[in-house]
Design a protein that fits this description.
alpha+beta; Alpha-Beta Plaits; four-stranded antiparallel β-sheet; 8 helices; 25% strand
């Protein structure tokens, strides 16, 4: 019986092994394989109709990490929706009229969107970002969503860890805001409240409040 040399076959014995390893990674959903869940067409249509791209990403990526989301209902949240949300184990972090900030898991999104009382849901971001919102600005955000006017501009005072530069101004512009005043570690910006979650993605910002 002959034994093949490890050098023979130009490494042909290793190539099938690599293929098997790649197949195993895909099958187990290993992050290294970059696999994301595919969704039925009806679910994608629902997410496009009532959600946004970031919400769609959350469903595809799955996981158990909760995040804050802004939901707009057809009825008053406190009077008409609190029982439904409690039954679905979805905490209400803040509410105003028909709008609320909810704490959601990815596996709760589709069932929430299927509820006929839900008009739309927008992903806000990690719950910790809410601590960087001054209460009156948070109330302004909810009141605009309640009235369907989240696209209208609001003036915001952004307090930074140190003096912001061009990078921070570009980040504000990408969130839909224009700079109207610069002063030390602060910027006053004007833009839609719907852009507040993206504005807060900058870890240089320590606090947002309504501009005086």
């Amino acid at each position: 019986m002959s034994v093949s040399s490890p050098r023979s076959g130009r490494g042909g014995g290793r190539f099938p092994a690599l293929l098997l390893l790649a197949a195993a990674l895909l099958a187990t959903g290993c992050p290294a394989a970059g696999k994301r869940a595919s969704l039925p067409a009806a679910d994608e249509e629902l997410l496009e109709a009532k959600g946004d791209g970031r919400l769609l990403d959350a469903v595809r990526e799955g996981g158990k990490e909760r995040f804050a989301a802004i939901a707009v209902f057809r009825r008053d949240v406190f009077l008409g929706q609190s029982a439904m949300l409690e039954q679905a184990a979805i905490p209400i972090l803040a509410e105003f009229g028909k709008a609320a900030i909810l704490l959601l898991s990815p596996n709760q999104i589709l069932s929430l969107l299927r509820d006929p009382s839900v008009r739309r849901v927008t992903r806000f971001g990690p719950q910790g970002l809410l601590a960087r919102l001054e209460p009156s600005l948070e109330l302004e955000l909810l009141s605009r969503y309640d009235a369907g006017k989240e696209g209208q501009d609001v003036s915001i005072l952004a307090r930074f860890r140190d003096v912001p530069g061009e990078k921070e101004e570009r980040e504000a512009a990408s969130a839909g805001f224009k700079v109207v005043f610069r002063g030390g570690p602060n910027l006053v910006v004007s833009g839609p409240v719907s852009g507040v979650p993206r504005l807060l993605e900058s870890d240089r910002i320590i606090y947002l409040e309504k501009a005086p």
